[in-house]
Amino acid sequence: MDCITDAKAKQAANYNKSAHNLPDLQVGDVATVQPVKRNDTWKKGVVTGILPYQSYEVQSAGGTTHRPNRRHLRKTASSDKDLVSPVALPSQSPIPNVIAPAPPVLETAATSPVPATPSDTTSTTTRSGRPTRRPAYLNDYTC
């Protein structure tokens, strides 16, 4: 048992040699976002919000908003504040911007329910719109 704890301690020490925490980003910092595909180019953006679990809301030059984790962001020394207009940046506050939950949807009752009528059973459609038909060998079968 002592050998197992020694091995775990050795493994933790080897891992912690190169492991480190990345510095936090602030709202308004310019950062580059790592692409999803390996061969794509990194895109510049401005941090517009701080989310829980080391995630950030980043708005790119094209206007799209991304929610990358901190390890997928690199802070750039460039001060390209023209990527996002200053009106789009929220006010800087010590409290991180957390997305509010959606309001509940109220259900409305139908005024007059329509009874289901048996439709033509020879052809129906799937959700994708493809027509389906009963097999020919079932034409003799009646319910």
Describe the structure.
By secondary structure, the protein is α+β, with helices and mostly antiparallel strands. The chain is 10% helix and 21% strand. The protein has one helix and seven strands, in the order αβββββββ. The chain has a five-stranded antiparallel beta sheet, with no helix packed on it. It has a two-stranded antiparallel sheet with strand order 6-7. Strand 6 and strand 7 form a beta hairpin. About 4% of the residues have low confidence.
What is the topological layout?
Layout: H1 2-16, E1 30-33, E2 43-51, E3 55-60, E4 65-66, E5 73-75, E6 123-125, E7 131-133
Antiparallel strand pairs: 1-2, 1-5, 2-3, 3-4, 6-7
Can you describe this structure in just a few lines?
Helices cover 10% and strands 21% of the residues. The chain is built from 1 helix and 7 strands.
